[in-house]
Amino acid sequence: MNKSREEAQTLAQQWLDLTAKPELTEEEAHSVIADAKKNFANYVNKGWLEYRKSVTEAGQWAATEWTGRGAVLRDVLGREYIDCLGGYGLLSLGWAHPRVVGAVQAQLRRTPMPSLELINPARGVLSKLMAHITPGDIQYSFFAASGTEAVEGAIKLAKLYTKKSGFIVAVRAFHGKTMGSLSMMGKAEYRQPLLPLYGGPVYHVPHGDAAAVEQQLEICKTVGIDIAAVLMEPVQGEAGAIDPPDDFWPRLRVLCDQYGALLIADEVQTGMGRTGKMWAVEHWDVAPDILCSGKALGGGVMPVSAFCSTPDIWEALMHPNPFMHTNTTGSNPLACAAAIATISVILEERLWEQAAEKGTYFKGKLKELVTRYPHIYARITGKGLLLAQHFHNAEVGYRVAAGLFRRNVLVAGTLTNAHTIRVEPPLVITREQIDEVLNRLEDTLQDISHSL
Ligand code: PMP
Fold it and tell me: Tell me, what's the pLDDT at 417?
């Protein structure tokens, strides 16, 4: 590559000029697509570009996002898609919710970033709001940008408080891809090439199997390995919206107390109303010791994540060294403004109730499709608007995903495969939009049935 700073300056200015325009001409839109393809291939990740198989198979692999409102996403050519992917839980409030955008704009006029030495008042307000909306005695919060950072913080806090180092986690779990979170992940393809990971012991047990957790805790006690925490997703997201038996979380709570381990709920994907409760653990009336949040916390406008815990446990981060866990931009005023507005919208519109009601309707209709297309579907799982369609194999899953994309509905498989397709639309999706998705899905299934 021939490197040129003059060319970089021209390119940056061209992009700034283009994005300042209220509308693009058709020629400009096509040049955005052509450049995006080249830039992704040459400077981002060629493999990723080739791997998005559902859109690749739909023949629209270069579809380029541009804007969106509510549950509708628009590409740079002005084509509209009903978003049934919702940024894997990021866009619970839909695309560019006006109240969240407004709050961020207001904050931006004053100051976007913190001094880090004076007191950032927005950080205080957001922490207090989190104390109000989280379960049990949880009262303190620390903010970052990504879900994986929230999990990293939770791991450190559990170790510091318990002075133990072992973790029990779930097979097929997803907690993020930084080294600590990755150690807790339950999928070989992401872990194995990077072994060894976390220095302490990590044991994987099947999600939803309280007896397996108990057995592991008992074994560790017998052989003298101390377990700091049991870390799980309440409903597994990336594994394909897998909800556990109803006694699982209550039993985890009892077991953790019995064995002196902390219970960490990773609600990065399930939290903020997604499963039909503000937090998924509320389905079972369980208060974890540490709760992780992320994705939807920033309202789909700013990246915001958090880990939160009780005053007793938080002591480990306050004394003797209050700088035990810090970051530079985690509680920046823009992120705080977005999260404060997000919480306000969720509470005002009671979005968790909407998720419960719309999810029950959507799931019921999907289950009817399983009965009518048993050669395509294996089953439907999930809670609220964290649902998943499980197919007999990945190939048929890709065909459904591609068929939907051709019909302007955005869905995606779970990480690298379409054996399971998650249905995770913004919680603000309307009943009419759900019906429209179901129509287009039925049309796709009929098409596929004919050629099977
Ligand atoms: N935890 C869970 C349960 C998740 O679903 C995810 C993301 N899919 C993460 C953690 C990691 O979040 P991020 O990608 O923002 O680091």
Answer: 74
pLDDT for residue 294 is more than 80 = yes
The reply to whether 162 and 241 lie within a common domain is yes
Domain boundary among 349, 380, 415: 349
| Whole-number pLDDT of residue 78 | 95
Residue 70 above 90 pLDDT?
yes
Ligand 1 close to Cβ of residue 173 (< 6 A): no
DSSP letter, residue 421:
E
- Pocket flag, ligand 1, residue 279 (CB < 6 Å): no
Q: Is the CB of 174 under 6 A from ligand 1?
A: yes
pLDDT in tens, 424-452: 999 999 999 999 999 999 999 999 998 87
Q: Is the shortest distance between the CB of 184 and ligand 1 below 6 Å?
A: no
In contact, 300 and 100? CB cutoff 8 Å: yes
| Listed residues 319, 349, 379: the one ending a domain | 349
The radius of gyration of the chain's CA atoms, rounded to the nearest angstrom, is 23
Give the span between the Cα atoms of 221 and 187, in whole angstroms: 26
Counting the structural domains of the chain, the total is 2
Q: Which atom of ligand 1 is nearest to the CA of 151?
A: 10
